[in-house]
Structure formats: C-alpha cells, structure tokens
C-alpha cells in the first residue's frame, strides 16, 4: 500500500508528505470522514512510509521493513480493531503495554485504531492517558466515521485530518482505466459508491 495506490485525497497525501519532509510528525492523528472513503488505506500508506528504512516521502518497497509491512508481519505496526462491534478495555490496555517496549526494527511504533469511536468508555479514558504523554517513538492513527463519539479531550490531543468523498469523475476514470468498464458502466457503478 503506497500513496500512489490511492485515488483522490491528493491534498491530504501532500500534507502528510510535507509533514514527513519537514520532520514535523505529530504523535497522534485522527483520520475522520464517511465510511469507506479511504481513511484506512491512507493510514496504512502513511504508516508504511514512516516505517520504511529509506525514510523518503514514499515507501521504497524494497527494504525488509516494506516487505514485512506488505506481508502483515511488521512488528512495529499494530492494528487495533473492534471485536463484536466494540474495542474492549483489554485491547486498549494491551496496546498501552506494547507502547512501553522499544521498536524492534524501525525508529518508531505505529498504532492504528480502526473505528476508534467504538472504544468502550473506559478504553477511551485509558487511551487519553497515553495520548497525554506518549513515548517519543510512538505514533497513533485513530480512524473514525463518527468522531463525535470520542471524548473531546481525545480530540484535543490529536491532529485531525478531515476526509471528503472522492470526486465522481475520478471514480469513473478508475473504473474505465483499471477495470476496463465502458464509460456508461462506470457512470452506473459510480452512482452507487
């Protein structure tokens, strides 16, 4: 997963690359927007880039870190997601324990919390404590389609990045170019996205 594999969100990608270029990487981000518009894909691309040994604006796709990320085996990338519609307190406590160990292969550890609004209230409170003073090598990316369900104090400690739906024309172009759909078929399909 690379930035170039993502359709749309050019301004967000450019902003994230500028953050990397200027070495102004925040410890916590909130990727917020509607369901299924690319927040998680972009979080993965950002995480892979930050973990890449090449330390460029894009992952090199040739180092061991990139290969491990692509295979889902990177020890410094941790995904937390809901189990049975909720992110439990135990999951958050386990994640917090993992923040206390140094990265194994990279300069940082990255924790992505998918559907972060589904955290149990006690988990939200525990997350808040680690967001107040995270280890310097830790980065959090919270993903949410409903950030109003997060604590205001959590939102105040993260850099919020707002995602918007992808332009209709870009969806059509993708369907025509990558999936060999006719323009009419692509328009029909795009109406349902």
Span between N and C termini?
A: 21 Å
Hey, roughly how much beta strand do the residues contain?
A: 5-15%
Calculate Rg over CA atoms: 17 Å
Helix content range of the residues, please?
A: 40-55%
Structural class: alpha/beta
Report the count of strand segments.
Answer: 5
Strand order of the biggest β-sheet: 2-3-4-1-5
Number of helices: 8
- Which term fits the overall shape? globular
Major sheet: 5 strands, parallel
Low-confidence stretches: none
List the helices and strands and how they pair.
Elements: H1 10-21, E1 28-32, H2 39-51, H3 64-71, E2 77-80, H4 89-99, E3 109-113, H5 121-132, E4 138-144, H6 152-155, E5 159-162, H7 168-179, H8 183-190
Helix pairs in contact: 4-5, 7-8
Overview of this protein structure:
This protein has 193 residues and is of the alpha/beta class. It is built from 8 helices and 5 strands, in the order αβααβαβαβαβαα. The chain has a 5-stranded parallel β-sheet, sandwiched between helices. Helix 4 runs parallel beside helix 5 and helix 7 crosses helix 8. The longest helix has 13 residues. The protein starts with 9 loop residues before the first helix and ends with a helix. The relative contact order is 0.18. The mean pLDDT is 92.
